[in-house]
Design a protein that fits this description.
It contains three helices and no strands. By secondary structure, the protein is mainly α. The longest helix has 45 residues. The two termini are 40 Å apart.
């Protein structure tokens, strides 16, 4: 069984916690808040896509062409909304990781 090692968790918190309370805390917390918002938005869009996919398959099974084309349009709109959010989410995740690594490197060198 995979078990969380308390010693490892304490060591991780010992390294990570000071960053969130350092001089860069507001930028880091702001990026984290934006990332959490993007994650919630992406999960909401995924739920919406699952409902659209369900109705899409129902329209195909029932051979309902008007509903089919309407759902294709809805799917494209949701896809076009989700793509930039996913791209910015990936970008900001990498940016936050780079900021944290830079801070950790400077801390180690000091």
């Amino acid at each position: 069984m995979n078990r969380i090692d308390r010693h490892l968790w304490r060591r991780f918190l010992g390294i990570a916690k000071p960053y969130w309370f350092s001089e860069e805390k507001w930028g880091a917390r702001g990026l984290l808040a934006v990332l959490l918002f993007f994650l919630l938005a992406l999960n909401g869009l995924n739920v919406l896509l699952s409902y659209v996919g369900r109705d899409f398959m129902t329209a195909i099974a029932n051979k309902n062409t008007s509903s089919f084309f309407h759902l294709v349009f809805v799917y494209l709109i949701v896809f076009l909304m989700g793509t930039p959010i996913q791209v910015f989410n990936d970008y900001l995740t990498s940016k936050l990781g780079l900021y944290w690594r830079r801070w950790l490197t400077n801390l180690s060198l000091d």
